[in-house]
Amino acid sequence: MQKLGTWRTSKLIGLNVYNNNNEKIGDINELISEASGKIDAVVIGVGGFLGMGERNVSLPWTQLKFVMEPHSANTASTSTTRSTTTGAGTPVATTTTTTTTVGNRDYPDHVVINMTKDQLKALPAFKYLSDSSSTTTRTSPGPAR
């Protein structure tokens, strides 16, 4: 059984990343771990529109603040007010409130970083090791005669 205080890392992919001004500035595309399993860096997709033109940047895990509570734009509680009429014809306002609790979530709701969108975009593009193509030329002897 999953232990309390642990997260499902598969759920971290796609988390929205916000800055301190409450602006969405990207989302998590990848987690980079050391061979020991310790997460070293987080790859964040920034810029672009509808998935086009996005580029990846990397931040150290320690620069991210994971937040369990729903983002303020994603209201944790909703209220609806309805006006009804009593038998005497007097209008009565009724308010219904629905609250969503965080409970024992096994992953955070979103991430906050202390950077502006422009600062994040100014970071160098992240490159995977497999993206670096090294070309080596080998000469092999011709066919034996």
Describe the protein.
Mean pLDDT is 80; it is low at 74-80 and 97-101. The protein has a domain at 9-72 and 108-128: PRC-barrel domain (SH3 type barrels). With 145 residues, the chain is mostly beta strands. It has a 6-stranded mixed sheet with strand order 4-3-2-1-8-5. A two-stranded antiparallel sheet has the order 6-7. The chain has one helix at 117-122, and strands at 16-19, 24-33, 39-46, 55-60, 65-67, 77-85, 91-99, 110-113. The chain starts with 15 loop residues before the first strand and ends in a 23-residue tail after the last helix. The chain is extended. It contains 1 helix and 8 strands, in the order ββββββββα. Strand 1 (16-19) and strand 2 (24-33) form a beta hairpin.
Helix amount: under 10%
Number of discrete helical segments: 1
Q: Main sheet: which strands, in order across?
A: 4-3-2-1-8-5
Describe the global form. Answer: extended
Summary keywords:
mainly beta; extended; 145 residues; 4% helix; single chain; 1 helix; two-stranded antiparallel sheet; SH3 type barrels
Please sum up the structure shown.
This protein is mainly β. It has a domain at 9-72 and 108-128: PRC-barrel domain (SH3 type barrels), CATH 2.30.30.240.
Please write out the topology.
Elements: E1 16-19, E2 24-33, E3 39-46, E4 55-60, E5 65-67, E6 77-85, E7 91-99, E8 110-113, H1 117-122
Parallel strand pairs: 1-8
Antiparallel strand pairs: 1-2, 2-3, 3-4, 5-8, 6-7
